[in-house]
Design brief:
The chain has twelve helices and 22 strands. Helix 7 runs antiparallel to helix 10 and helix 7 runs antiparallel to helix 11. By secondary structure, the protein is an alpha+beta fold. The two termini are 21 Å apart.
Length: 406
C-alpha cells in the first residue's frame, strides 16, 4: 500500500511568454523543492509549473521519483476513491499550475468536450485528449488579462464612434448581437496584414475622447504591438471585443470552455479540468495560428461582461478553524481551497472524498496528515489521497492552495 500523503517534485516549461530566470515565480517556487536537480538558468524563460498527473510534464513522487499518474493508476481506489473513479475515471481530474507571465499568451479558447472528442479522434497528436478544459486563474499579485467578451453595447459604442472599424462590419446599420460579434471576429482574424496595420495606425490618431470609457485601449495598443507586431489581428480582437481586467492578489476569474482569453502579465495559480487542448488565433505568428473557421465557430458568449468573468470566494465547510476560503467554479472537476495563516495560527481541513494537490506559495510551517508531520514551506507540493484530514501550523505565516475533487 502506498502512502496516502507524499511530497511531489514538479518541473517547468519554457514558453517565450514566461518570465526570465529568478524573475519567474514559477522557477523560484520549483527550485524550493530540494534534491530534484532543477537549477534556474538566468537566460531561460520559465512559464508554467505543472502539478498534476497529466502525462505531459508529470509530477513525480519526490522520494521515489515515480510519476504521479503511475502511482495513481496502481492505487486508484485508495487514492481517488470510488466516487471519483465513477465520475471521472481513474485519473486526477484536475491540473493545477503556477504561471509567470511577462507578455501576452496566445489569444485562445479551449474546446468543449464534444469538440475535443472530435478533434482528438481526428488528430490525437495535436489534441492529446478528448476532454474539455474550463479553468480558473487566481492572482498572486498584479495580474492583467483579456477574458470573455465585453457587453455588446460597449462593443457597438466603439464601432459607432470609430470610423476605421467600419471595414469589419458585416453590413451598415447593423444591430449588434452575438452572431454579428462572431462575424466581426472572423473578419478581423482573416484581414490582411495591411488592413490590420492600417486600422491600428488610424485608431492611434483618433482623439482620446472618442473612446469614452474604453480609452485604456490607446495605452495597451502600443504595448501589444511591441510584444508581437502591428500586423497581429489579436491586437484588435482583444482590445475591441474582450474584457480587460487588472486584478490584485487573491482576485480570480473563471474561463469556461470555448471562451476567448489571453493572459497579459503577472504571476497566478491556475487550475483546469485535466486537458491540454487549445485553439490559438492571435498573439502568435500567423503560421502558428489554428483554423480561424474552427475558432470562430466554437466561440461562446458567456461570460459577456467583466463582472461575469470574476470568480469570488466563500466560506467552506471543509475548514475547521475558519482560516480557509474556497474558489468554487461552476464545473464538477475541482474546487480550490486557500488557507491563510499568521505565525502561530493553526487550521485543519476535513477529510475530502477525493484526491487533492496542495502547495504553499509563501511562508513556512508544519503539515500534519495521515499520522505524519511534514515540513511545508514556499514551493513545497503534496499529493493527498481521498479520506485524509490535513492540518497546518504556521511558523512564519503560511499560504496554501489545495485543489480537490470529490
Amino acid at each position: 500500500m502506498v502512502a496516502s500523503v507524499f511530497q511531489l517534485q514538479c518541473s517547468c516549461n519554457n514558453y517565450p511568454w514566461g518570465k526570465k530566470g529568478r524573475e519567474s515565480l514559477t522557477a523560484t517556487l520549483c527550485a524550493k523543492t530540494l534534491n530534484t536537480g532543477f537549477e534556474i538558468d538566468e537566460s531561460k524563460e520559465y512559464a508554467e509549473m505543472w502539478m498534476g498527473d497529466y502525462p505531459i510534464l508529470p509530477a513525480k513522487c519526490l522520494k521515489s521519483g515515480e510519476e504521479l499518474h503511475k502511482i495513481v493508476n496502481d492505487n486508484k481506489e485508495q487514492l481517488l476513491g470510488k466516487t471519483c473513479i465513477e465520475k471521472f475515471g481513474g485519473v486526477v481530474p484536475f491540473l493545477p499550475k503556477i504561471l509567470s507571465i511577462s507578455k501576452a499568451l496566445p489569444l485562445q479558447i479551449h474546446p468543449n468536450k464534444e469538440l475535443s472528442e472530435q478533434l482528438h479522434k481526428k488528430d490525437p497528436e495535436k489534441y492529446p485528449d478528448p476532454n474539455h478544459k474550463p479553468e480558473i486563474a487566481i492572482a498572486l499579485g498584479p495580474f492583467e488579462v483579456f477574458a470573455g467578451f465585453k457587453d455588446n453595447n460597449d462593443i457597438q459604442d466603439l464601432f459607432s464612434a470609430l470610423p476605421p472599424l467600419e471595414r469589419f462590419l458585416p453590413r451598415k446599420d447593423v444591430n449588434f448581437d452575438n452572431e454579428v460579434l462572431k462575424q466581426i471576429c472572423y473578419k478581423i482574424l482573416t484581414a490582411s496584414d495591411e488592413e490590420i496595420r492600417t486600422t491600428q495606425a488610424e485608431l492611434a490618431k483618433l482623439p482620446r475622447e472618442k473612446y469614452g470609457k474604453q480609452a485604456y485601449m490607446l495605452d495597451l495598443l502600443p504595448r501589444l504591438q511591441r510584444q508581437y507586431s502591428k500586423e497581429d489581428p489579436g491586437n484588435l480582437v482583444a482590445l475591441l471585443t474582450m474584457n480587460f481586467l487588472s486584478l490584485s492578489a487573491g482576485d480570480a476569474i473563471y474561463v469556461p470552455a470555448d471562451a476567448p482569453h489571453a493572459y497579459l502579465s503577472g504571476d497566478i495559480v491556475e487550475c483546469m479540468a485535466r486537458s491540454n487542448n487549445v485553439l490559438n488565433t492571435g498573439f502568435c505568428p500567423r503560421a502558428d495560428a489554428d483554423s480561424i473557421e474552427l475558432f470562430t465557430s466554437a466561440l461562446t458568449f458567456s461570460p459577456h461582461s467583466a463582472e461575469e468573468v470574476k470568480l469570488g470566494t466563500s466560506k467552506t465547510e471543509k475548514s475547521i478553524s475558519g482560516k480557509t476560503s474556497v474558489y468554487a467554479p461552476p464545473m464538477s472537476e475541482f474546487n480550490m481551497l486557500k488557507t491563510s495563516l499568521q505565525a502561530g495560527e493553526k487550521e485543519s481541513i476535513r477529510a475530502i472524498g477525493g484526491p487533492s494537490v496542495l502547495f504553499a506559495t509563501s511562508g513556512t510551517g508544519k503539515l500534519m496528515a495521515d499520522g505524519n508531520t511534514h515540513e511545508i514551506k514556499e514551493g513545497y507540493i503534496f499529493f493527498v489521497g481521498q479520506g485524509v484530514e490535513v492540518s497546518y501550523e504556521a511558523s512564519n505565516g503560511l499560504e496554501v492552495y489545495q485543489a480537490y475533487a470529490e
